[in-house]
Amino acid sequence: MLFMKHDRLASAIKKLPKTSGVYIFKRNKIPLYVGKATNLKSRVSSYPKSTDTRIKKMLEEANRIDFEQTESDIKALILESQYIKRWQPKFNVAMRDDKQYLSVAFTKEEYPRIYLTHQSRSRNLSVSAVTNPQVTLRGKTRKMSELDAEYIGPFTDSTALKSTLNSLRRLFPYCTCKQNHHVRCLNAHIGKCLGFCCLKDPVNARLELYKENIKAIKGILNGNKATVIKELKKEMVALAKDHRFEDAIALRSKIGNIERIFQNAQIIKRQQEHFHALVEIQKVLKLKNIPNRIEGYDISNIQGVHATGAMIAFIEGRPDKNEYRKFKIRQNFSSKNQGGQVYTKKTADSPRGASAKLGDTGMLREVLTRRLNHPEWPYPDLIIVDGGKGQLNAIQAVLKEAKQDISTIGLTKNDKHFGDYVVYHVDQTYKIIKLTRLPPAVRNLILDVDAEAHRFAIGYYRKLHTRSITS
Question: Which among 26, 303, 352, 446 would be 20 to 30 A from 376, CA to CA?
Fold first, then answer.
């Protein structure tokens, strides 16, 4: 929250972060203008240089500027839309360009269609279909604007909005057909449409899935990503309990992809941060060397079936997929008896008494042992695994047997499976530090290595599981 008085805007700008987010010019508590930026400091710095009379007038009226940081440009796009709709700031209306301000329209048909529409020039930001495609329904040609619809917006960045919708459509396919027809359309063949809207007698189950897709897209564009993910996780748990493991895994992958949609806009920036984080991580965690090569490991299995291990590598802070390796678990770690039960134990040395699966620990030992049997692969400076002291003990035992001195880090998770604590080994003892206490660049590097290892392991597991049920 920054206050502005006349020519003191420059000093206020200096306090803005160089991250994505939303900024709000205000007159006391009244919002005058809302904008979004990939770099808040850089974007707002351009305002004093503007020759636009409308911007000059806005700066004369404003006496403060608030800002809100976001984790990605897409989040900033959605948050900006919510604030404009809520406050209807007068300078957003005055400076609006109809070619840029868009809303997303959801028709209220049995199979809702999604299309983009420009805003009208009215003060209340009501929507009119300037972008107004025609559709043919039951032999009658009608304009989209004639259909009853629900609107979300306005969005000021049309390119970012179209990119976001394109990403969401890959996860939640929806129909854009402009005519009724009874053969599968091209979008159905390439996975962008469920295809039932092309059929004369659609399957009810597919209709329900379609409605769920539309609901998810609405939720995300309305800024309720967390709620959408929460509902998907509940469904994932229910599928697993019903032994529909393949469907549960597919849903877990979809949840991860939603997160990545919001992260992709920050990938380049994040990788630049990773490079500078290498020196910092050495100092904070007292590592022996700067970790120019980091390897992340993850185990993926459900009750030991088709268990897989994965190794990923970050070189100088960047993922190098040429160095990734897959491992199909050879030994059976799924149980200690013939009943198939997976034994777990509470580890007193794990934060909050986290459970460590004995089977997963054994699998991790196997994967690392096999990896170290390949001296032609460069050894890492740092190993990061999902787990606590139990996993690190297993790794240390393998490294000792192989006579390798490599630093190791364990990332423990809380009940929501979010990173919680970092466990590391210093001077023959284990140290535990809250993840949130680490510098942001270090924290992001650890989380990204862990997430990439998990993604790679899940992908290999799904491939093996699919092959087993189709062969």
Answer: 446
